[in-house]
Structures are given as C-alpha cells and as structure tokens.
Amino acid sequence: MYTSTSVSLRRCSTSILPGLFRPRLQLAPQMIRPHHPILRTFSSISANTHKSQRNYKPSHNDCTNDDTTTQIRLSKRMSELGICSRREAARILKEANETTSDLRYLKEIIYVRGEPVTEGTGVKVSPNEKRIEIKAGDSPIDEDSDGSGYFVPYAERLWDEIRGDTIVLNKPIGYVSGQEEHQHIPAVRLLTRANLYLEDGDDETKKTLSMGTALHFSRKKWNGFDLESSTIPRHIRKNIAGVDDKKSKSDKWFDEATLSGYATAGRLDIDSTGVIIFTRAGIMARRLIAPDTKIPKEYIVKVQPAVQPTTHEKEAGLLSLPSPTRNLTSLLRGGKRLWNDKKALKPVLEAEWLEENPVLSNGGTLRLVLQEGKKRQIRRMCREILGMHVVSLVRKSIGPIQLDTLPEGKWRPLKEQEVREIFADTPHKKRKKAKRFVGKD
Questions:
Q1: What is the spatial distance between Cα 169 and Cα 254, in angstroms, rounded to a whole number?
Q2: H-run or E-run covering 9
Q3: pLDDT for the residue numbered 156
Q4: Cross-strand partners of 401
C-alpha cells in the first residue's frame, strides 16, 4: 500500500490537489503536508518517522546492552566515578566529535570498554558502567611516542598543575556561602589579596603566589550594601566588615579585586563560622560534597534548651519540640528522620559533651563529627532530637583541612598533603571509639 500511494502521489497534478505542489515540481511523499484527507494517514506516518529522527540522541550501544530508558550521560557517570568533572568530560567529548583529523592527534580521548567515543556529549551508558578511561593520543611533535600514554587523573597530576585550585576560608558571621541575593554578601568577597594569610616559613604558599598561573584576581561589579532593603539582622550585620549602620551604603571594600573562577564546595549558614572550601576543580567539589562522600566534618556547637517551636517551624507543621536531653544515643545510632524529610539520618561518627559536669538547664558545648551535609542539619538535629537550640556553630575541619590558626575572615590555598589526603582511599585517620555520654534527663 505504501508503494501504490507513493506512485499515485507522484503522478498527480496540481489541479487535483491544489496548494500542495508547486507548478512543474514533484516532491517526495515524506515532504507532503497532511492538508488533504487522502494524505492524512500517509503523512502522519511520515511525520512521526521524522519526528523520531529529530529527537534522536546518540547512545554508545557498543558499551552497554541496558535499556536506554535507564541510561545516563557518559559525562555524569565519569563524574560519579571520580574520573573527571562533567564539564571536563563534555569538553573532551566535544573535541573528539568535532575533530577532522586522526584521533591519535587528540590530547585526550574517552574510551568505554576499549572503544573510543566520538558521538559527542549526548552519549549515554549504563548507570553501572565502570570500564571507562581517558587515554592520551600520540603527539604529532614527539616522534618517539608510541601512543601508550594515559590521561592523568586529577588526584595523580603534578602538584604544579593543580596548585591553587582549592582554597580554604575561615568564614565569619554575616556572609553567605552562595550567590549574592536579598542584600546578603557572598563569602567570595573576602577572597582578596589583603585577606590572604601567610604564616612564617610557609614557602609553599609563597611559591603558589609567585606562579602567575595559580591564582587570578579580578574586579566584579557590586551594587553596594543598602541597609534599607537588607534583610540581614542587625546583630549579624555589625560583624560584616565595611558596613556602617550610620550610612545607607558602604563601598569600603566592595571594589577590591577578588579571586575569580572559584565556587563553594558545600554550604555554611550566614550565622555560622569556620571552614568553607572554594575550588575551581569540579572533581574536588564532588569529592567533598557528594552524597556518598566519606570525608568527615567536625563541628563545635553551643546549645541551650529550646523553649518552643519558631514561627517558621509552626508554619511547616512542627507544633512541638522534645524535652531537652543530653542523651546522644539517638545521634550515634542514626535512623531518625527530621521533620518533612523522607530520608533517615546517617549515624553521627562522634558525639560528645565537652563539659565534665554538665548541667541541663545551662545548656552546653557539643562536639560533632558527621559525614552528611544537609541544609541546616545540625541545627535541626539539636532542636528536633535533643530539644536544644543552637547558639553558635563553628566548623573546625573538613577531612584533613583544619582551621588551626587561620584567623576569621582570612584564606589560604590548600597544601599538597591536604589535597593528596582528600583523594586517598582513607582521607582521614581511623577514629577512636565515640564517647557516648548519657546524662540524666
């Protein structure tokens, strides 16, 4: 039937089907529009065929036999495996797809199960695919090269190549870890030359500064700080450098050049202080904040007995809080669910009271070590599980990155030993048995 329809269409004239053909022009059946009732069935089949071709996304069928509905992008899978970041994988795939020369002359090539991937950034693989690697092609300049070189993973690259990619900041109260919005000042504004912290005898940081390719500073547009439209509480606002309550705007430090190209790896509340990481390497960010990360984070938390739920908690449906307790067993065992959270909490690695003889009515100071990083997790755990309100929160460390003597508001580049330990199989020392202080309620 398909053949007879196509023949009749090619023999018809413009007088029979006006408006479908141009004079003395014969079109293929798939180019006919379904204006005429006779052609509706045929044209719908043709249109559906071409629609599927337009929505076609390449899939690396040589790599997997799984159903395409369960596949994920190759760049995402490489990021999950820690091979490289999504952006870096997309760049390599794009270069391989657009090259007009031999693949041997490419600097980097992605291989899946031994086959080079040249279909572009839309390639998909199985979520469980593990046989992925990046190899380096032959260099046209080096005649002695045998083409057996491999792409060097980020964790194994020379230190001079990744020096200055990640820095640590001791964030003070009043700065947000994300983008500037609602008159909240981002912590990246503190990454200026004046705030760089140099210890005596720190030759490694001095060498990082002397290298012209390690750190880049640039000026960014800033509209200033408007006290009239700001939503920052006054007790937090007074801790922000350069802001004067007597003036509507202050541009004391907003015009200073800051580090460019860095993004935060994780978050820290506006009313919290301590270690916050900035990096320009996607693989480093994933290593620190991925849901399956094993890197511990240490916090010092001062608490007091909570009185009643806040207005925000009541609006969310939380109408009551538990009685204040010093029993930390619930945190160490895990399995509890915070209000309106579907996923249960993981066990806290360490939890202890720092006071020798704590008194319940006076609150106390907690030391917590955990691997999770949910939004306002510690504050919510203290309120909804311990019945305690957090007065102050300081993040002391992230894995091997310690706060130590880094002053508040100052920053420094990570050292080579810290970076190597982050990518090690055991990024932190094996912890001692957690102290389980159980006081009287």
A1: 18
A2: helix 2-11
A3: 82
A4: 398
Q: What is the pLDDT of residue 196?
A: 93
CA distance 91 to 95: 6
Instruction: Report pLDDT for 148.
Output: 43
DSSP string for residues in 266-319: S---TT-EEEEEEES-HHHHHHHH-TT----EEEEEEEEE--S--HHHHHHT--
DSSP-derived letter for residue 416 is H
The label of the residue with tokens 């413009």 reads: 14
Residue spans of the chain under pLDDT 70: 1-69, 137-151, 180-183, 221-255, 425-441
Q: Please state, in angstroms and rounded to a whole number, the distance separating the CA atoms of residues 401 and 382.
A: 25
Q: By C-alpha distance, which of 75, 71, 63, 61 is closest to 113?
A: 63
Question: Count of residues for the chain?
Answer: 441
List Cβ neighbours of 140 (8 Å cut-off, separation of 6 or more). Answer: 105
* 280, 262 contact by CB (below 8 A): yes
Q: For residue range 278-293, list pLDDT tens digits in order.
A: 999 888 988 898 888 8
Tokens describing residue 429: 């020392």
Provide the residue type at 252 as one letter: K
Q: Give the span between the Cα atoms of 125 and 120, in whole angstroms.
A: 13
C-alpha closest to that of 389 among 356, 364, 415 = 364
Q: Kindly state the DSSP code that residue 360 receives in the 8-state scheme.
A: G
Q: What is the pLDDT of residues 71-89, one digit of tens each?
A: 999 988 888 887 888 888 8
Q: Which residues of 8-46 are buried (b: 16+ CB within 10 A; e: fewer)?
A: ebeeeeeeeeeebbeeeeeeebeebeeeeeebeebbeeb
